[in-house]
Design brief:
The protein has 6 helices and 2 strands. By secondary structure, it is mainly α. The longest helix is centred in the middle third of the chain and has 37 residues, at 85-121.
């Protein structure tokens, strides 16, 4: 809260309205003489009488926030008479949307780059076939597993206790065990 700098210098509101600034002036704490344009904008947009009524209706601890809001809206209305604060808010919302799209595109590029890096670090398919083992049964429900890339979960057909692949089959008909 600012106050009048001295007894002989009226607040910006009283100076603008060309009246004597009394000790209990409701404008003095919020419109110091060093900021004359602040009150000029508020008066131009809202009127001194309306601002006086508003400040008198508010509790003292709410007045500073109200004056700051009025001053901000008044300055925005002076700069943009049609949209005021809404114009500034709309501009910022469009900017946020544009930046969000840029961020999404950058994240997509990053994921694409990371996926390309991962696929380039995998061994070649011929190397995978030579070091992999066949898992499954002879009925066609099988795939190759590279021992270097084990799965974090087990398959029902991996429950053999002897350690030999394809013993006991599992997952369908087509004969018993056997190796490849």
């Amino acid at each position: 809260m600012a106050s009048s700098s001295s007894y002989n210098s009226p607040c910006a509101a009283c100076k603008f309205l060309r009246r004597k600034c009394m000790p209990g002036c409701i404008f003095a704490p919020y419109f110091p003489p060093e900021e004359p344009q602040k009150f000029a904008n508020v008066h131009k947009i809202f009127g001194a009488s309306n601002v006086t009524k508003l400040l008198n209706e508010l509790l003292p601890h709410q007045r500073e926030d109200a004056v700051n809001s009025l001053a901000y809206e008044a300055e925005a209305r002076v700069r943009d008479p049609v949209y005021g604060c809404v114009g500034a808010i709309s501009f910022l919302q469009r900017q946020v949307e544009r930046l969000q799209k840029e961020l999404d595109a950058a994240n997509a590029d990053l994921i694409r780059y990371a996926c390309n890096e991962m696929t380039s670090q995998l061994p070649s398919p011929s190397l995978v076939r030579s070091t992999s083992r066949r898992i499954g049964n002879e009925a066609g429900g099988s795939y190759f597993q590279n021992p270097a890339y084990s799965h974090p979960y087990s398959f029902p057909w991996d429950d053999n206790s002897s350690g030999h692949l394809n013993e006991g089959g599992g997952g369908g008909g087509g004969g018993g065990g056997g190796s490849m």
